[in-house]
Write a structure and sequence with these properties.
With 262 residues, the protein is an alpha/beta fold. It has ten helices and nine strands. Bound molecules: NADP nicotinamide-adenine-dinucleotide phosphate (NAP). The site of NADP nicotinamide-adenine-dinucleotide phosphate has 28 residues, from helix 2, strand 2, strand 5 and helix 7.
Length: 262
């Protein structure tokens, strides 16, 4: 989509929840490059400010920094109301992944995974889609993962939350399309981000992509369907995991990648 049309469809502001580094910063940059103003939300103020300054200086757009933990959805909603900016695009990128054997993961970690990966994207989608429906235009991008295509040992709860986002996006894609709102889930494979590099001690998995590539391919897919799978290797992996193999075999293959995570 050309820059002007992107801005007219999804402007004037985009909210990138989890937009200070990693994939979220790549989304924020690709969005600013397309001429939208950006609200950047994350917990660490210094990293937020660094990204905001870079985007303002490079693209000349307005960048609002929003220091918050998405797990505290009620406060995020209240403060978003106070901001009084029209958000035409939501990119929900923040995530929490309790990694390791299920018996070693605490209840608190599981609650946090549902707050950050399920409750906040669901309620933010509800909150921000209402004015989009009223305006008859807008976009919502929810970050899912190939790990959400089937059970994924050692990240079982995280993978289940990512599956939730993909299914939510599929339903809303069909429901909101006639109202002018494009909904899309990005089922990404491995992405070179600080979060991934911390979790993955071995060499990157096959098909690992740069965050910039994932952000570009995702934004280009907005309005074209409910799911995007960036990268050719990941498209093949998704086909094999969901169509060619039995569920049992798909889980066994995924286990080879995730079984060693700790
Ligand atoms: N990396 C991969 O290989 C991969 C693969 C498939 C899917 N994904 C998905 O892609 C998304 C991004 O992954 P990533 O690796 O880029 O993550 P990341 O590097 O860990 O960064 C996430 C961003 O979210 C912010 N954030 C994290 N928790 C937050 C919270 N509770 N409240 C507010 N902001 C928060 C971080 O800033 P602060 O720390 O300052 O809050 C940062 O800006 C996630 O949804 C993930 O599930 C990633």
């Amino acid at each position: 989509m050309r820059t002007t049309r992107f801005r007219e469809t999804y402007g004037p502001y985009a909210l990138v929840a989890g937009g200070s580094y990693g994939l979220g910063a790549a989304f924020a940059e690709a969005i600013a490059q397309r001429g939208l103003n950006v609200v950047l939300l994350a917990r660490q103020e210094d990293r937020l400010n660094a990204t905001a300054t870079r985007l303002r200086e490079t693209y000349g757009v307005d960048v609002v920094t929003f220091v918050a933990d998405v797990a505290d959805y009620e406060s995020v909603k209240e403060r978003l109301n106070d901001l009084k900016v029209d958000i035409g695009l939501l990119v929900y990128d923040a995530a929490y992944a309790p990694i390791g054997r299920f018996e070693d993961v605490s209840e608190d970690q599981l609650v946090r995974a549902t707050e950050v990966n399920v409750r906040a994207p669901l309620l933010l989608t509800k909150f921000l889609s209402a004015p989009m429906i009223e305006r008859g235009r807008g976009g919502i991008v929810l970050m899912s993962s190939l790990a959400g295509s089937q059970g994924s040992p050692n990240i079982a709860a995280y993978a289940a939350t990512k599956s939730f986002n993909a299914i939510l996006a599929e339903g809303l894609w069909k429901e909101l399309r006639p109202r002018g709102v494009d909904v899309l889930a990005c089922m990404a494979g491995a992405i070179l981000t600080p979060g991934y590099q911390e979790a993955e001690s071995a060499k990157p998995a096959p098909g690992t992509l740069d965050a910039k590539v994932v952000a570009e391919q995702t934004l280009n897919a907005l309005g074209k369907g409910p799911i995007v799978i960036p990268g050719a290797v990941n498209k093949i992996a998704r086909f094999v995991l969901t169509r060619a193999l039995s569920r049992r075999a798909a889980i066994a293959i995924m286990s080879k990648n995730t079984g060693g995570l700790s």
